[in-house]
Amino acid sequence: MSTTIKTTLDNGLTVLLRDVHTAPVASFWVWYRVGSGKEHVGITGISHWVEHMLFKGTPRWPKGTADKAISREGGMWNGATWYDFTTYYATLPAEKIELELEIEADRMTGALFEPKEVEAERTVIISERQGAENDPLFLLSEEVMGAAFRVHPYGHETLGHMCDLQGMTRDDLYRHYRTYYVPNNAVAVAVGDFEPERMLELIRKHFGSIPAGELPNAPHPTEPPQRGERRVMLEGEGNTAYLTVVFHTPPATHPDFHPLVVLDTVLTGASGMTLFGGGGTNKSSRLYRALVDTELATQVSGSLVPTVDPFVYSITATVRAEHTPAEVEERLREELEKARSEPITEEELNKAIKQAKAQFAYSSESVTGQAFWLGWSEIFAEYTWFEQYLDRLSAVTPEDVLRVAQEYLRRSNSTVGWYVPRNEH
Question: What is the C-alpha radius of gyration for the chain, rounded to an integer number of angstroms?
Answer without folding.
Answer: 22
